[in-house]
Amino acid sequence: MPVVVIVDDQTINLKILSRFARAIGPEVVVRTFASGEQALEDIFASPPDLIVTDYVMPGLNGEGLIRLCRERDSTREVPIIVVTAYEDRDFRYRALDAGASDFLVSPVDNREFRTRARNLLALRQHQRALRFRAVSLEHELEIAARDYSAEIGRREQQLRRVIDTVPALIRAVDAQGRILVLNSRHDEFF
Fold first, then answer.
1. What is the pLDDT of residue 190?
2. Dist CA 52 CA 103 (whole Å)
3. CA 75, CA 70: separation in Å to the nearest integer?
4. d(CA 189, CA 20)
5. What pLDDT sits at residue 81?
6. What is the 3-state secondary structure (H, E, C) of the chain?
7. Cis peptide before 58 (omega within 30 of 0)
8. pLDDT at 188
9. Pick from 18, 112, 160, 174: most CB atoms within 10 A?
10. How far is CA 171 from CA 16, 98, 176, 183, in A?
11. Tens-place pLDDT, residues 120-136
12. Given this model, what pLDDT does residue 75 score?
């Protein structure tokens, strides 16, 4: 079940955005916070699947929240939507430069919010699936490499047994003249 964290210092905005987030689907869990500091503590303790934050807030603002989230491995890839009533492009650029995934101007349209949030949640789910698959493939590769190494060792032992049974001198050297293979009957020939 996807978890959405909403951060806004205005109670009415928290209610509206929470309602929009719950409308994404019945399985969505919404956690709300009236300050960036409170939200950050919760986000770090239990990273959500999506963060929706106001940009202009007292104390820790949206830009600061984003930057702190992007510094941690556990929250680095969590999508973040920034919402603000200010249409000044500088707010958008600063939010996006800080690492925001998307930006909405208030008043937020319900359908636009749900669509963007759904898309970011789907992207997050795909990222997790890819990361899980990568870890799984890495583990499989380690096992295959270990099995391959063991098989090479067994075949090398078999080859040495065969070479040791040959009554003639068998010797292999590398480019520097170092002996790589020498059968056990070599002293009979010197």
1. 46
2. 9
3. 6
4. 88
5. 95
6. CCEEEEECCCHHHHHHHHHHHHCCCCCCEEEEECCHHHHHHHHHHCCCCEEEEECCCCCCCHHHHHHHHHHCCCCCCCCEEEEECCCCHHHHHHHHHHCCCEEEECCCCHHHHHHHHHHHHHHHHHHHHHHHHHHHHHHHHHHHHHHHHHHHHHHHHHHHHHHHHCCCCCEEECCCCCEEEECCCHHHHC
7. no
8. 53
9. 18
10. 82, 65, 14, 7
11. 999 988 888 888 898 89
12. 93
Which residue positions in the chain have pLDDT lower than 50?
A: 189-190
Nearest to 21 by CA among 120, 100, 105: 120
Name the residue with tokens 């491995």: 73
Structure tokens at 65: 């929240």
The single-letter code of the amino acid at 71 is E
